[in-house]
Amino acid sequence: MSIVTILWVAVAVAVVLALAVGYVLLRRRRQGLRRRFGPEYERTLNEQDSRGEAEQELRAREKRFDTFDITPLTPASRQTYAQQWAKLQERFVDAPGPAVTEADELVITVMAERGYPTEDFEQQLADLSVVHGRTLHHYRQAHEISRRAAPAEASTEDLRQAMVHYRVLFEELLDDGDEHHPQPATAREKEPALTDDSQQR
Question: How far is CA 29 from the centre of its chain?
Fold first, then answer.
């Protein structure tokens, strides 16, 4: 076998190895994105023209997220917010629309204290997706119902569902990042109860 042939074989082997390594790394990065973003991975994939563009978008979200100073709530803040949520659930019975609107505002307040930007809803979704991708659909649904609550286009059952959806993200934001503090009991109370009077509204 000539030297030239040996060189060509060596180059071919090197190329094959490089492609194999590249494929393995790409697959690992893809699996990492799937694990981190959960359902948001598929949602982003459906919104973009290609898988490459979708994954580039998700990696851009990760880079932006890394610039934030996300911190857990203090025990005092956690307790205060849990108490506020409990009061909202009580308020829901007599004023479901305003309670849902206030629930939206409370979630945003907690986000801001944790260190998340809150200036734009779509950007909120993108930023939250890095850590809360598996429950983010609850926030989307809650926000959509809340948007319809002001002009009274949402039914009482819709509003009750909005409270349930808000609570999922609220509880995560309350305790995410501080594994030494279990969720307060007040934030784990049952879904907003609807009395006969509230159902007739």
Answer: 20
